[in-house]
Amino acid sequence: MTAAGAASVTAEVISLPDERASIRRRLLQRSARKLGEEAFARAGAYDEDGVFPDADVAGLHASGLLAANLPLEFGGAALSGLPLSEVLRAIGSGSLALGRLFEGHVNAIELVLRYGNHEQAGLVAQEARQGKLFGVWNTDGSNDLRLIQKLDRTWLEGRKILASGAGHIERPLVTATDADGRRLMVLPKLDAPDRADLSGWRAQGMRASATGAVDFTGVEIKPIEIVGREGDYERQPWFSGGAWRFAAVHLGGMERLFDLLRRHLQETNRGKDPHQAARLGRVTMAVETARLWVAQAASIAEAPLGSRAPEQAVAYVNLTRLAVEAAALDLMQLVQRSVGLQAFLRPNPIERISRDLATYLRQPGPDRALTDAAAWILAQPLGAQDLWR
Ligand SMILES: Cc1cc2nc3c(=O)[nH]c(=O)nc-3n(C[C@H](O)[C@H](O)[C@H](O)COP(=O)(O)OP(=O)(O)OC[C@H]3O[C@@H](n4cnc5c(N)ncnc54)[C@H](O)[C@@H]3O)c2cc1C
């Protein structure tokens, strides 16, 4: 069943005046907490190759979260920055696979709002309010995606790989190259789920993210489905700056592992042992380190334009990615040492979440993210006390 099929009722999402928007954002955060707990309860059952978390996505729709980052005039709550990071953490804490899908959805809407015209924003807003899940599919394999134009027809040829929600997302945002070598964003309408091939996704974790290849050959493209101008997709600071959102989902997974470890230590009465206590202290430091980086990155990356140098935001978010990755790797080995073999035995959720987190931590170009940030830092005249002001 598609996300839209699972969520047949249009969510009650109404435009609210500005002064009530913050109340609406708080309600969305509360809904995300509740949905995170429901997703956590279902996550073990969804942990199968090729599975898609239909019920969780229907829950995102029913609670208004699929429309949350739309502007108020489009029926959303303009959710961004810190309140959005709270939502991403809550959902990631319930299910990292669902968090990945939701983070892609938020990214797709944001790209259309930033680079699309009013009509395109209206199109995605309407579909999001109806319960359609979006995603951003940028990764090319050997048969990369091309945009072909002949006479008055435009269509796609080729495929995308590593596409989350493959076979379920009906309107992904994809990047495609035209005959002049221009890389453009396209919003194709897919009506046949059999274009997806999930057979290659035999990953250690994130099995329920329905990540796979999608063949677009022959899909007709209307003018309204081409978004923005050449190079918009990779335009900085938003391209690298948006990485704080997946770091927030990673943090959610870390927070769940923290909760599970503490409960284990309480239930086994092992927490007062000095070795276990020391590890719990270090786990708490790892979670709090990640939380501080993510919160600061959400504020810096979404600060009003002109309030700080774009390169500074990119450098900060690049470091955030890596700080969260390091904290998560540290946390996982501490949790595994504290819990022991039980942390490797199904159906213990520590086993599943550790697999999901280890897999999801693999994001593009981590070495480059670090060295690019270091290059920016090297060129700054400011001392450490003022570097990130
Ligand atoms: C669960 C999951 C869902 C995903 N969903 C989507 C999706 O919906 N849409 C989408 O577009 N993508 C998706 N992806 C793919 C994702 O965006 C990345 O492309 C992928 O995770 C890259 O991982 P990698 O480790 O292979 O990265 P790489 O960038 O290949 O990094 C691997 C290592 O090689 C190093 N390296 C990178 N480039 C070079 C170089 N030129 N020379 C030397 N060393 C280099 C890196 O620093 C790192 O150490 C998903 C990935 C996961 C795990």
What characteristics describe this protein?
389 residues; Butyryl-Coa Dehydrogenase, subunit A, domain 1; Butyryl-CoA Dehydrogenase, subunit A, domain 2; Butyryl-CoA Dehydrogenase, subunit A, domain 3; 3 domains; three-stranded antiparallel β-sheet; 12 helices; globular
Task: Provide an overview of this structure.
By secondary structure, the chain is of the alpha+beta class. The chain has three domains: 3-133, Acyl-CoA dehydrogenase/oxidase, N-terminal domain (Butyryl-Coa Dehydrogenase, subunit A, domain 1), CATH 1.10.540.10; 137-227, Butyryl-CoA Dehydrogenase, subunit A, domain 2 (Beta Barrel); 238-378, Butyryl-CoA Dehydrogenase, subunit A, domain 3, CATH 1.20.140.10. It is 51% helix and 9% strand. It contains twelve helices and nine strands. Strands 1, 2, 3, 5, 6 and 9 form a six-stranded mixed sheet that branches. A three-stranded antiparallel sheet has the order 4-8-7, with no helix packed on it. A hairpin with a 4-residue loop joins strand 5 and strand 6 (183-186). Helix 2 packs antiparallel against helix 3 (54-62), helix 4 packs antiparallel against helix 5 and helix 5 runs antiparallel to helix 8 (244-268). The longest helix is centred in the last third of the chain and has 30 residues, at 310-339. The protein is globular, with a radius of gyration of 21 Å. The termini are far apart. Residues 1-9 have low confidence and may be disordered. The structure holds flavin-adenine dinucleotide. The site of flavin-adenine dinucleotide has 21 residues, from helix 5, strand 1, strand 4, helix 11 and helix 12.
